[in-house]
Amino acid sequence: xxxxxxQNKASKDKSKDLVDILKKHGAQVYEDLENGQFPKIxxxxxxxxxxxYDKKLRQYILGSGTALRSSKNTAQLRSFTQLVWLAFFANxxxxxxxxxxxxxxxxxxxxxxxxxxxxxxSDNIIVDLEAVLTKPREEFYVFPEERSSIFGDLTIEYxxxxxxxxxxxxxxxxxxxxxGPSLTSSQLVDTSxxxxxxxxxxxxxxxxxxxKVDKKFKSIILNTGGQAPRSTRTLLKRLHDEMGLPVVIxxxxxxxxxxxxxxxxxxxxxxxxxxxxxxxxxxxxxxWATDIDKYKLPTIPMTESDIKRCYDLQKxxxxxxxxxxxxxxVFLKIKxxxxxxxxxxxxxxxxxxxxxPQKLELAKSL
Amino acid sequence: xxxxxQFNQISPSExxxxxRDLAGFSNPTRSLYTAVREFVENSLDACDHSGILPNxxxxxxxxxPDKPDPKQYILTVKDNGPGIPSKHVPLAFxxxxxxxxxxxxxxxxxxxxxxxxxxxxxxxxxxxxxxxKSNDDGKTRYEFEMLLDIQKNKPVLLKxxxxxxxxxxxxxxxxxxxxxxxxxxxxxxYVYQTSLIxxxxxxxxxxxxxxKFNHKAIIRTMPPAPTIIAPHPYGIDVETIRRMxxxxxxxIPNVDAKxxxxxxxxxxxxxxxxNYNDIMKKAEKKWKSLTRPVRVVIALMSFLEADFEKLQxxxxxxxxxxxxxxxxxxxxxSETIAVDMETENPYYKQLANTVQGESLTHFLTKRFQRVGxxxxxxxxxxxxxxxxxxxxxxxDQELVKLSDALQTYEGFRSPDPTCLAPLxxxxxEKGIERRFEPDFMAVVQRTxxxxxxxPFVIEMGIAYGGNIKSNGLKVFRFANRxxxxxxxxxxxxxxxxxxxxxxxxxxxxxxxxxxxxxxxxSTRVPYKTVGKENVADRxxxxxxxRLALQFLSRKLSSYMSKKxxxxxxxxxxxxxxxxxxxxxxxxTELAGKKKEPSYQKMLKEENAIAEKTE
Lengths: 366, 614
Known about the structure:
The complex is a heterodimer of chains A (366) and B (614).
Chain A: H1 2-34, E1 40-44, E2 51-54, E3 59-62, E4 66-70, H2 74-96, E5 100-101, H3 102-108, H4 119-133, E6 142-143, E7 149-151, E8 154-157, E9 167-169, E10 177-178, H5 181-184, E11 187-191, E12 195-199, H6 202-210, H7 213-216, E13 219-223, H8 230-243, E14 247-250, H9 255-266, E15 283-286, H10 289-294, E16 300-301, H11 304-314, H12 322-334, E17 336-337, H13 350-364
Parallel strand pairs in A: 5-6, 12-13, 12-14, 14-15
Antiparallel strand pairs in A: 1-4, 2-3, 7-10, 7-13, 8-9, 8-11, 16-17
Chain B: H1 12-18, H2 28-50, E1 55-62, E2 71-78, H3 89-94, H4 114-126, E3 130-135, E4 140-149, E5 154-164, E6 169-178, H5 180-197, E7 202-206, E8 212-215, H6 238-248, H7 257-267, H8 276-286, H9 292-304, H10 308-311, E9 314-320, E10 325-330, E11 335-340, H11 346-356, H12 360-367, H13 373-383, H14 396-408, H15 425-436, E12 440-445, E13 449-451, E14 454-464, E15 472-479, E16 482-484, H16 492-499, E17 513-522, H17 539-590, H18 600-613
Parallel strand pairs in B: 1-7, 15-17
Antiparallel strand pairs in B: 1-2, 2-6, 3-4, 3-6, 4-5, 7-8, 9-10, 10-11, 12-14, 13-14, 14-17, 15-16
Helix pairs in contact in B: 2-4, 2-5, 8-9, 9-11, 12-13, 16-17, 17-18
């Protein structure tokens, strides 16, 4: 109970923090106008030249470069107004705890004569605000459309209006639970699990539930649905940080799978302006390029874009050592890839019966 | 060629009949248009040269309106010009190559054959006579009906009537095969554009479909009428110089009774004492007052020691200055005789000068316009000729050298434009303003220049925006106040316009509403064809066009950047008015304030800047 209260307080602090920062920015703009000055806002520069890899944090971060967006400059006036509007809108969402999506934001703008030309323009402004606040958009209640899901013995307590205090165990429904705003914003109360297994594909997620992987391996199973959305990554981080659970990742045996694991571990360059999305201790346990030969998996040839992606990643500082470097080299050597489903050649449960235990054992030593 | 080939001379009428394509009478469409042009231009020329503000009325009527095109039309052009004296009418309209347009002054038509060609064409296609009504004194109107005898190049008069009338002017009416459904657009364009370049003329047009086009005069003053003058040294060629030299060669005068009488009078002698010795004595005394031919005859008499009787019996064959011999043919003895000439003889110089022609400086000052004694001397220094060089003695090489030097020497004043009749900047500007109502316009008249000795003046106007209908750049070409409508592609004006990089002048030429009016005035516009529709790209003309266009483009450019600045400031002010209130609204709520910040002052300042720039 002690822990729970602490968490509650932390969540409220977080909200209050955000509202405070928003208010501070609003007051600055107000003051400028009052003094007959054109207001301006400093935004961290998100261009590639300002993205650097921080070895200590083990993720990409933004450098010290910033760009000034001024309302005096007519080329920036519109986007400046859009940014102030979004801050105003985010403030409302946060205070009222109303969730919205990127698309909602785009349409909401139209009620205020803020003319976004298309959604990609409004999406961009959202990232601008994230950078200004150094907070992910989920904190100001803008959630992604993509839903990934979770299953396992984890008790949560909702914080969203109308459900406050209501508890729920995530093993009650055999299809798993969608990772939406209510789940992301809930308190993590209790779990018997000792491990989180993040898996790339929905099909395998269902198989794992059917085969009771949660019980057999005392784990929470999480479906990333391909590249893990940021809310999912936030949840993974909380499971790791707040509940002290190690995270292992199971992907297709190809270069994209390897990178899905890497993004969970150390984030993406796209989100270099944010700090709370990574699980640096997460482990990629397969399918490795070396597993393809070892487990005699049926393969398909790599496409040209697969190969190009390999060469691109070889330039990434995070792929300069360990299994990351080694597996990339093997992929390039064999020029073939294998999907998670490839294990079905040896029976539908082969992956959970044979492969998973072996890899989990191996992961301990990684 | 076989030796049996017959060489027949054909009359000019027949030549043009056989080559009517050249003159623009190739088909019913083109012919109707060309006929309109020839008559309207003749009328305008006539009015211009008599200082009458033209009032021209043109009617085209179908003989049988229900027939499909091409069909017979009656074309009538009526003016308020000076008319033509009745005795000249048959020749003027009934022969080819009869006219008054062969001097060095600007006129719309070149040879005066166009109108006759139209009549000829009408006669060929419909076999109907031309009807001419002329009133040249404001009292009597003479009405003619005639046909053209093509082989003899002679008019055949069918009818002639006299009627009292107070309306001066000329009316010509022909019946011809035409295609108005196809030529209509061009003809209406032609009438419209003519009114643009002739803003002092009133032109009305009744078309066969019953539509009336009325272009009223915009101004009430006429540009000064052109005069006939000598050629300018710029751009003259060797052949032209050679021809001019033939004219300057002083002829040895023919000694006849008339000449003898002239000599006697100049010397002031009585018939009695009019003998060789007395003549010589008297001539010595009166030398300075004698005219050139008389001096030459006296000099000859002196060398030949001959009286008039003997002088009339001989023919001077050569004045050989190298050997100092005078060679003549004696009719009475039928032999050639050479006499020595002593160079000390005072008459020697007279005779020598005569056959050698003028000195170079004299030749230049007398035969060319814009060359004074100083310019001539300076030119000789420049060209490394002795000023006293006799032009008659110059070798072919020297002539080439002279011709080249005349074109490269920069000290001559610009050609005398009095033989030209440019419209003038102000009338051109008014014409453009009234017809297009643009936002911006500029006109320029370049100083006169010359090609091949023919002076020309470029006038150009540029107009932008406003009520200009065209999308993109439209070029109106004129030459000697004639609109040029066909063969646009190969014209020198188009070439110059197309070479221009409009981006440099802040203009988007493909989307901007823009008009260029170009007017080339010359005593001879170098048309590429007899159809007079496109001007050849002579380097001198191209250069002047380019300079005119550059001058105007720079003006347009500065207008555009001013306009750009004003638009910018206005745009800025508009943007601020739109967004600042929004920013104020949102930040007020964000900051948790009740009252909006006072940003109105900022908006006022921006609006003030915008108004100032405009």
